[in-house]
């Protein structure tokens, strides 16, 4: 098909299908066979056909848009994690003929207020919620409204039923500790954030559980904590840890951005990674592969998770399943060059006393 078509009727006629079938295929309805949906989508692209959103909304009661609120909490609108997440979410939606609306919440603006506007204006058929807090008023609001949503992450309250997809950070942090412990490390550092985010607790609890399973009184854990978007405070906290007379030989960071800061500050302090200091992150953002010597991290499959969340949300919008859709993804270790054996004389032979500094591990 080479001629441009401007109406649904013309597109349907060119394919020899009914207008209803083509309309439903473009909307991603599961009742239409996958091959038919793919055929219609390809024909629409080749013919340059763009559905009339206003007309589609009047007929179906749906806008064809999914909303995502981006809070501006630092110098950059989108950090490396959100960049990959938004890309994957957009890919997942466009494959089903849906589009993504991004709404920004300024630093002095409550994210819930922006979310309310997206929901109550009727601009979106559903929303995706990221970075779940221990007690999250966004999820409570959406559930009260009965509005379709999928969360990337979990609440601490297991009795709150909702749709979510998450990565198993607790398991990953346990694996990180076991790997470093088997390499002889006994003095560990944890670099974390002060915000009450659920993923922080889950990962830190996984680390604490792994330490407890070993039952080794020589294990020592120091904790460096700073606000998520305060780079200056983060650097100060990391340097206090690295410049201590008895510093850790291995550091596990809550996510890659923090791990990359540790690598930068270790280099400035004249420490060799991994000879003097092993470092492990979480997420596997693009920069982790290029920051010398290459960050060992856990791949959280950010982009693929976002694609799956798009699929889940469109299912929720179309079918309103009786039971919540949930999925827990196991992250995979990406071993690079930032971890290695404990420095001689500072591992199993150090005989340090167990203690925790700076708060909950």
Short synopsis of the structure:
The protein has helices spanning 8-15, 19-26, 34-47, 53-60, 80-94, 111-120, 137-145, 169-182, 198-214, 231-242, 256-268, 302-319; strands at 65-71, 99-105, 126-130, 149-152, 164-167, 187-193, 220-226, 250-253, 278-280, 297-299, 326-329, 332-334, 356-357. By secondary structure, it is α/β, with parallel strands linked by helices. The chain is elongated.
Mean pLDDT reading: 88
**Estimated structural class:** alpha/beta
Report Rg.
24 Å
Strand content: 15-25%
Please describe the biggest sheet, giving its number of strands, its sense, and whether it closes into a barrel: 6 strands, parallel
Discrete helix count: 12
Helix content range of the residues, please? Answer: 40-55%
Number of strands: 13
Shape: elongated
Give the termini distance in whole angstroms. Answer: 61 Å
Question: What descriptive keywords fit this protein?
Answer:
361 residues, alpha/beta, 6-stranded parallel sheet, 5-stranded parallel sheet, 12 helices, 40% helix, 17% strand, disordered C terminus
Protein architecture, described:
This protein has 361 residues and is an alpha/beta fold. 40% of the residues lie in helices and 17% in strands. The protein has twelve helices and 13 strands. Strands 2-1-3-4-5-11 form a six-stranded parallel sheet, sandwiched between helices. The protein has a five-stranded parallel sheet with strand order 9-8-6-7-13, sandwiched between helices. The chain has a two-stranded antiparallel sheet with strand order 10-12. Strand 3 (126-130), helix 7 and strand 4 form a beta-alpha-beta unit. Helix 1 (8-15) packs across helix 2, helix 5 packs across helix 12 and helix 10 packs across helix 11. The longest helix has 18 residues, at 302-319. It starts with 7 loop residues before the first helix and ends with a strand. The relative contact order is 0.13.
């Amino acid at each position: 098909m080479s001629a441009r078509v401007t109406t649904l009727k013309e597109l349907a006629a060119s394919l020899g299908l009914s207008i209803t079938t083509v309309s439903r295929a473009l909307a991603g309805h599961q009742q239409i066979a996958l091959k038919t949906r793919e055929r219609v989508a390809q024909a629409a692209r080749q013919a340059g056909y763009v559905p009339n959103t206003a007309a589609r909304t009047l007929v179906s009661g749906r806008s064809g848009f999914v909303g995502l609120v981006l809070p501006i909490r630092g110098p950059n609108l989108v950090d490396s994690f959100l960049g990959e997440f938004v890309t994957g979410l957009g890919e997942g939606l466009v494959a089903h003929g849906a589009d993504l609306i991004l709404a920004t919440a300024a630093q002095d603006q409550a994210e819930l207020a922006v979310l309310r506007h997206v929901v109550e204006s009727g601009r979106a058929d559903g929303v995706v919620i990221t970075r779940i807090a221990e007690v999250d008023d966004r999820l409570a609001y959406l559930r009260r409204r009965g509005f379709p949503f999928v969360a990337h992450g979990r609440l601490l309250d297991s009795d709150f039923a909702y749709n979510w997809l998450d990565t198993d950070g607790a398991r990953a942090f346990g694996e990180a500790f076991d790997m470093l412990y088997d390499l002889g490390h006994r003095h560990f550092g944890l670099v974390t954030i002060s915000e009450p985010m659920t993923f922080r607790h889950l990962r830190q609890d996984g680390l604490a559980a792994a330490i407890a399973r070993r039952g080794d009184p020589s294990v020592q854990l120091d904790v460096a904590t700073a606000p998520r978007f305060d780079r200056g405070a983060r650097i100060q906290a990391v340097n206090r840890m690295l410049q201590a007379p008895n510093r850790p030989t291995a550091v596990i960071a809550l996510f890659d951005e923090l791990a990359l800061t540790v690598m930068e500050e270790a280099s400035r302090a004249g420490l060799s990674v991994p000879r003097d200091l092993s470092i492990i992150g979480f997420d596997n953002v693009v920069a982790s592969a290029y920051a010398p010597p290459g960050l060992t991290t856990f791949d959280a499959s950010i982009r693929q998770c976002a694609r799956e969340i798009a699929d889940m949300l469109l299912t929720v919008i179309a079918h309103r399943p009786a039971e919540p859709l949930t999925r827990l993804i196991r992250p995979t270790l990406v071993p690079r060059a930032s971890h290695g054996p404990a420095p001689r004389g500072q591992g199993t032979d150090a005989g340090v006393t167990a203690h925790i500094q700076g708060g909950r591990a």
